[in-house]
Specification:
single chain
Amino acid sequence: MLNRLQDGSDPLAWEEFFSRYWTLIFGFARHRGCSEHTAEEVVQDVMLKVFEQKDLFNYDPARGRFRDWLGTLVRNRVVQRRRRPADRVRAQGGDADLAPAEPQAQDDTADAAWEVAFEQSLLLVLLDVIRREMDPRAYLAFELYTLHDLSGKKVANYTGLSRNGVYRAHKRAVSRLSELGAAYRKDGQLGDRLKRAMRERPPAAVEWSLNTRLEETMRSRWGTPKP
């Protein structure tokens, strides 16, 4: 995906980048004390930065991971946005003196927080891959049984599958998660990690808002819709 982004001629790569990382960036900004509005601005800032400077992807894997590069970019944007509440109010015609300051983050261990957020975001991406691969009823059975702790009997009643079918769906999805790179299976934490990631997934309205804002911004800057 990074190579396709760098080339700049594959619009699907930009959509893939956005769909894969917006929840990560938004969630991390919220955990660092940003309001929902400011977290959306952080996502937009990062996406525009990536769009404008494709040379940012010319990195040496031996010198650092992509997640570290992205984490540095996101943390810098969070800091900048949290320092500029008055600027936002002035731009909207308000009174800068009445601008509510962003609440201070409770935890200063940003690097550790970023690692947790990245892993949770990765799990959500892998879940989406599995959802597209599996039969809809089988995936629903997996989600109800694994992520919502319903019994095999209840899941079978809801989905119309047999209990064995429910257990097979669960086994297939967990095995596929491991094949795709999801950790924590051996130490028994995979289910808990998935539940946490699902709980912290931003509302669908946030994605709609971000898509709209990015499209409008890119049209105003370049006369082109969001890639």
